Amino acid sequence: MRILKKTLCLVLALLMALSTMTLVSAETAKAETEEVTGFTAEDFLTVKGRKMYNQKGEEVQLKGVNLGGWLIHEDWLCPDELPKGVQYDHETILEILEERFGREKAHELTKLYEENWITEYDLDIIKERGFNCVRVPFWYRNFYFDDKGTKILDENGDWDFSILDWVIEECAERELYVILDMHGAVGSQSDAPHSGRAFQGAQLYEKSERGEEYRRLTIELWQAIASRYVDSPAVAMYDLLNEPMCDVECTEIERRAKNEWIYGLLYDAVREVDTKHIITMEAIWTGFALPKTFLKGWDNIVYQVHFYNNSDFIFNFFLLLTIALHPNVPLMVGEFYPHQKTTWSNCFSTMNKLNYSWMLWTYKATGHGMWSSDWCMFGAKNGFWNANIANGTYEDIAYAWGPEQTRTENNFQDTGHYEKNVKDYL
Question: Which of 8-17, 281-290, 317-326 has the lowest mean pLDDT?
Fold first, then answer.
């Protein structure tokens, strides 16, 4: 009887072992057949010569779209309305909202808008349509309440970078690279409304105590961002300043001198905390506005131009000129639009042929009839509600910036731009 019991126990143990082995084998087989998605450390981008590569040695050309109008408002992109005669810029919008409702309520409205203008739905569309990158324009007021350095804090009392955390995490899951683009620095790097504050002078460059403080805060912000995302393979590069000296009366020589100075400060600041990520620097409107990288000691750099030319010949000429000026640096067209005699087909085919990365301006817009002329992939439907910033109630503005009005799937329509002009070049 004792021998029988031992035999039965041995048989049961063997059966259990076999069962466990079968289960493990099945789980292993299942894991091997499931598609692995999301970026890994091997997707981290770096520069070699005139090209970008991931850590597997594969060449990567970025073909993406800007998320304009999301973190920094522009009048023709966004569902806003200001009284006639009032200069439109994002700073004016915030000042009016804070004056009317207080800082906390104004911030609530801002967060509501940000949660709805771009969502997972939009990132899914961008991925499905074949893009591999998004450029994310932001400005300092996403992280500071003012230009005095009052930080916006989260519920734990930490500096709030949750909006960038969200887009980087979501893009990483979808294998979309992210370009972090400082569209508006503290004090502003341009005179253009798209920097967040219009026609107040490019005060970032001022040789004054105020200018010095603006530069200190801009450096503080960039170092915080670079420290936070230093190990993120989804971040393709840091775009230090959007269109520096835009709308400022100056020559290309003057613009280049300003660029060398301010880019040098920001480059050194970022490199103190992040030596791994690519840094991109912009020239408007020609490559003459950027120095030779080897003279500055800059490495892992992409040079960027924004072209809004009025003929295919001029567009192609400036592409070739930029290569001639900077033959050993990867190049990117961060924004472009074919005016007058310039054609989409020429823009895309030439950029692809010359190995330029490119970013379409822009993903969606609400009005002024611009979307119908191929500026973006999605435009607002008829009867769109704009937020009456100066006179609307809190509830009215919340509705205009809420999901029913602002989400792409609820109140926007495909312009046909992607199918007609973009699809074939992805």
Answer: 8-17
DSSP designation for 158 = S
pLDDT digits (tens, 9 = 90+) for 234-267: 999 999 999 999 999 998 899 999 999 999 999 9
- Judged against a pLDDT cut of 90, whether residue 20 lies above it is answered with no
| Full-model pTM | 0.91
Cα-based distances in Å from 411 to 69, 117, 341: 16, 11, 32
DSSP strands (E only) in 164-272:
177-184, 235-239
- Give the Cα separation of 60 and 39 in Å (integer): 14
Torsion 24-26-30-33 (CA) sign: positive
CA atoms within 13 A on the CB side of 222: 30
For residue 329, which of 38, 47, 106 has the smallest C-alpha distance? 47
Cβ neighbours for 205, distance < 8 A, ≥ 6 positions apart: 189, 211, 245, 258, 261, 262
Q: Burial of 155 by CB count in 10 Å (0-12 exposed, 13-18 middle, 19+ buried)?
A: exposed
Cis peptide preceding 362, ω within 30 of 0: yes
Amino acid 392: pLDDT = 98
Using pLDDT thresholds of 50, 70 and 90, give the confidence band for residue 23. Answer: very low
**Which helix or strand (DSSP H or E) is residue 43 part of?**
none
d(CA 1, CA 278): 75
Strands 412-414 and 133-139: unpaired
